[in-house]
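Possible regression after last week's pipeline update?

I re-ran a chain I had predicted before the update to compare outputs. Posting the input and the new output here so someone can diff against the archived version. Not blocking, just want to make sure nothing changed silently.
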Amino acid sequence: MKSIDEDLIKNADIQKIAAEGSKIYDSIKADYEPQKKGQFLAIDIDSQEVYVGSTSAEAVELARQHHPHQVFYVVKIGYDVAESVAKSFLGAF
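New output (post-update):
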């Protein structure tokens, strides 16, 4: 049985999320580097809100609390954007 997560990701415009998320990160990264290097940001491209976590899962979980049906742009602070991933976790339904 297909999960809600799979449908959400399947229907998401991952290229748009990656492009917009990268632009947002580029505009704010000076606020986070080098103090939070190695931590993760989950970025909601629609609201441009960012959530910081020690792991990508923690950052996404914080973001999910505010935007439960969103796919997020996730970046490791201080590292090449090529390491970034658009992710979403909805939790169990």
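Follow-up from reviewer: compared with the archived run. Residues 11 and 71 are 10 Å apart (CA to CA). Marking as no regression found.
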